[in-house]
Amino acid sequence: MKRFIVCVLVSALMAGCGGNKKAAKDVILTVNDPGESLFPVKDFFRIEKQLSVKADGEYFLSDINDAFFSDDFAFILDQRQAVSKVDLKTGEIVSQLRQIGRGPKDYMNAMNLTGDDDHLYLLDMSGKSVHVYDFDLNHIDKYNIDFIPTPSSFTRTKDGFMFLNSFDNDSIGMFVVTDSQCRKKATYLPKEVTPAEEDDDDFMFMSIFIGKYFLPDLQGKVVCHNPKTDDLYLYDGKSLAKRCQVKMGDDFIGKPGAYIRNIFSLNGNTLVNYMCDKGSCYAYFDQNFNLIAEGSGKNDPAFFPMSQVGDRLMTVVVSKDLLASEQAQIIIYRTK
User: Fold this and answer.
1) Where are the alpha helices (DSSP H) in the chain?
2) For 263, how many CA atoms within 13 A lie in the half-sphere containing its CB?
3) CB of 133 within 8 A of CB of 91?
4) Long-range contact pairs involving 72-81 (C-beta distance under 8 Å, separation at least 24)
5) How confident is the model at residue 308, as a pLDDT?
6) How is the chain split into domains, by residue range?
7) First to last CA, the chain
8) What is the pLDDT of residue 302?
9) What DSSP string describes 271-287?
10) What architecture is the 5-335 domain classified under in CATH?
């Protein structure tokens, strides 16, 4: 059984990596089996806003895959591959896009959603393209990225985009930097990456659908998580450098299904969500890399799946009751 290693995202490292050789030294943290303890979500996070999406509306909302905030609206990519524009004052879905197909404005397999001050960008993995929309969900443009074998995650950078390639034996973990119109500028394949072994295929296939692997900051730097090696890298706009790593403790060795789901950066602290034989678990580290809380999240279903935008975490909890008056609950958290 492969021993999985995960990269830890810490805002303090992002702020201190420009030319600081000490900041480049690897920091290793260990996540242990949490036993039967529960992760105390309410001790560390407050609900900033909780909105109900009514079931009698024109549009349907399923579990969240990704999100982007702009002013008083949230744009949500859900598991049906629909993009919804949600009014964060009322909870109303004011418009929705779902255009699956092979036409010039269609997408085949929407993976991630991101944006900037003017546009939304949708990554189509199977179509190897990025679709551009305005904030009213009108289609503006389409960029081809057929030079990336399997584009499974992306983010907007200061000058363009950054992509991750997954599930391709010769280039798993490859990072590709492009300009603002998705023309290739640079490719990075970390030295630690080797061609995938056959028993890695299931893991890599699963990792494509787990979440995003980029977190940009306001200064144009991007933290990059490589799901093949589970190392963390920092892209400073000019080069890619390894920064940190967290590994699962001895309690996880030999246990099937032990892997990291998501990493969140919150006010310089780090939240790691991982799976083990007890289900979904959490480990929370302070800015000095001290473990301050960990436990199972299985009794708190509203806390996953999550999407991070800035210092906010968002989740959509869909009602399983067909007679319920509320179709879904949108919950936005901030750290206390």
Assistant:
1) 11-15, 41-44, 201-208
2) 28
3) no
4) 73/135, 74/314, 74/330, 75/113, 75/115, 75/120, 75/135, 76/113, 76/314, 76/316, 77/110, 77/112, 77/113, 77/122, 78/316, 81/107, 81/109, 81/110
5) 79
6) 5-335
7) 38
8) 52
9) EEEEEETTEEEEEEE-T
10) 6 Propeller (2.120)
The pLDDT value given to residue 8 = 39
What is the rounded (10 degree) CA torsion for 72, 307, 223, 296?
Answer: 140
Report the alpha-carbon angle 59-65-214, nearest 5: 140
pTM above 0.85, yes or no: no
- The reported pLDDT for the residue numbered 3 is 30
Contacts of 290-293 spanning 24+ positions with Cβ under 8 A = 291/29, 291/31, 293/39, 293/40, 293/43, 293/44
Tokens found for residue 312: 């906010």
Collapsing DSSP states into helix, strand and coil, what is residue 161? strand
| Tokens at 70, concatenated | 């702009």
Q: Which two tokens stand for residue 8?
A: 């830890």
In angstroms, the CA 319 to CA 329 distance is: 8
pLDDT tens across 148-166, in order?
A: 988 988 999 988 999 988 7
> Which tokens is 205 given?
């296939």
CA 200, 202, 207 angle in degrees (round to 5)? 90
User: Side-chain half-sphere of 272: how many Cα atoms within 13 Å?
Assistant: 35
Q: Which segments in the chain show pLDDT lower than 50?
A: 1-24, 193, 195-199, 202-203, 205-207
In angstroms, the CA 90 to CA 246 distance is 40
Residue pair 224/9 in contact by the 8 Å Cβ criterion: no
pLDDT at 246: 72
Alpha-carbon distances of 173 from 32, 40, 110, 151, 183, rounded to whole Å: 26, 34, 20, 10, 19
% of the chain with per-residue pLDDT over 70: 79
Annotate 114-149 with three-state secondary structure: EECCCCEEEEECCCCEEEEECCCCCEEEEEECCCCC
Give the separation between CA 53 and CA 77, rounded to whole angstroms.
15
